[in-house]
Design goal:
136 residues, STM4215-like, 5-stranded mixed sheet, 2 helices, 5 strands
């Protein structure tokens, strides 16, 4: 699976499902990111991947689990335009088969990241499993 193409597919899915928010890849300089959008933002990035031990066969074949994080950013926590509501929408948007070029997505977890100057950030992590095989 191609990391950038997968990230782009997630961004496009979230833009379709949640057009009221700013949706984009994670900024190159996250320390200086400021929420400008009046409602909130969804920031998507590749979190990492893990691979199983190779299967005992002539060719190397491993199951890979690729994780992607969507950071939900909002000034509200509990309202209908708050982080809690957006977390539910992100979870619904990123569960199952939403792009023909990708395997089915599943959720790994949701975590509180931070609150600063009234801006809340939570992480929603989804994953895709695929097979990585040695090229012959």
């Amino acid at each position: 699976m191609d990391i950038e193409a997968t990230e782009n597919a997630i961004v496009e899915r979230l833009k379709e499902q949640m057009p009221e928010l700013e949706v984009k890849p994670f900024p190159d300089d996250p320390a200086n990111y400021q929420l400008i959008h009046p409602l909130g933002a969804l920031l998507v990035r590749f979190l990492g991947e893990s691979l199983t031990e190779p299967r005992a066969s002539g060719t190397i074949s491993q199951t890979e689990k690729m994780e992607f994080e969507t950071v939900v950013v909002s000034r509200n926590l509990r309202t209908h335009q708050g982080v809690y509501a957006y977390i539910g929408q992100v979870k619904a948007a990123l569960t199952g088969k939403f792009d023909l070029s990708l395997p089915r997505a599943y959720l790994v977890g949701v975590r509180f990241l931070s609150v600063s100057n009234g801006v809340w950030q939570y992480s929603v992590i989804c994953a895709f499993n695929s097979i990585h095989e040695e090229e012959e």
